[in-house]
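In this section we walk through a basic example: taking a raw amino acid sequence and producing a predicted 3D structure, encoded as discrete structure tokens. The instruction is simple. Fold the sequence below.
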Amino acid sequence: MPGKILVVEAIATNRIVIRARLTSGLFNVLLAASAQEAMEVLDCDACDLILVNSILYDMPLRRFCRKLQQRENCPPLIILQPENSAEKRRKLLHWGAEDVLPRPIGDELLFARLRAAIRDRPTPDEVALARSASEVTGKAAGLFEATDRPPLDAWSQVPTATMMLGNRSVGAGIHRERPRIQVTHPDAHTAALWKHQLAFHLRADLTKDHPENLLNGPYQAKPPDCIVLPICDPIPREQLRLLTTLRAKPGLRRAQVLVVVQQGHENLAAEALDLGAQDVMLHSTDAQEMALRLSKLSQRKWRQDLLQASLKEGLAAAITDPLTGVSNRRHGMLQLADVLANPARQPVALALLDIDHFKQVNDLHGHDAGDAVLVELAQRLRAEVPDGALLARIGGEEFLIALPATQDLRAQRFARSLCRDIAARPFALPDGASIRVTVSLGLAMSETTTGDADKSDHTRDLSRLMKRADQALYRAKAAGRNQVNLSQSVA
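The resulting token sequence is shown next.
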């Protein structure tokens, strides 16, 4: 089944007919006879989309839309209306409808619109992943909570209406940029007119161009968030093929596409949706309706970008030490294992670094001073460690440095230079004072490995290398600290 749809229809015979139609399109169908029953169904069963096929007798449609928006990760709402005027569509879209379709409507267009709405909705796995990433980063991403819309009459006031596309902040300091919207049309005058009309309703960075020029733009840095793509004479099929090409272009594949279908080409609307368009406008180029649809698409794109950023932050938090910003122990050990398994990066010099008398720093100056020393030390190490080397914090005051493809003499010079430089410069404390800190290092060289060694061999190599470096570190501590000690295989 491509999706589960909740149909809200007061008349029993209509419910039966709609269920038969949707079932023929391989949709799973739930039925509700009223708005209140629909709410009860949503409380018990998750669905992918809500289809309202009539006037609701027990609840005003505007109130029903608002109640849906208050639900977490609310399914999209599509309304079938016999009175499909531009003014009615604008009202319903503004109240929160995903789309407003004429009734009657053919199965091909109806099914394509339902598939597109379900396809673009975040899945439960994505919602769970976003929450997990937010928990890891400590940020409330605000990806799927309900959002308030301005009252209907606010659309007659441009500053209020544009709040839907203006800068806003969500969660812990995550800010939304002005959306980038590219208006295209084969006729330059029409493209300029659409751009001018949209500028009155939307606070966005609007550009205009010929549709074919979409493929020539340098979109790697800041691609458009939304694209207005017409299907019109003289070559509507060429414009439809352009849609498939857009989805293959790296800079544009995530852009939200609003297809404006010229009268006489309605048969291509369903095809455009199945080829990847997020929304279509039929029989209308009304600027306010286009602005509402672009507002919805821009918000969806923003949430997708926010989800991606949240996942990146969650991944970074999972592999990074939160205090110092370098790799944590788990990630550092995984990286070291990968290096040891690569014959081209042999030999590997491994240095374990430990701060001398670190407990005294905490006891005499406080734990905030100890944290400041760790942060500054990590910054110094990051500046000194060469490109391609590994740096990780693997314990309270202990760091790991791995130098791939490094001979023993070079590794010794690096370790001794690092030890001297750290001792030479004092560390600043939060209270304005400064202290001198020294470190001890244990250095070990990897053993020769062959490309056909199995995973267990590499694991043993890692364990032996860590043990020898650790023993060398203990000898450096026992010999008086503030020095480098070499494992026997290096000396």
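Looking at the output, two observations stand out. The first strand starts at residue 4 and ends at 8. Residues 140-175 have pLDDT under 50 and may be disordered. In the next section we compare this with other chains.
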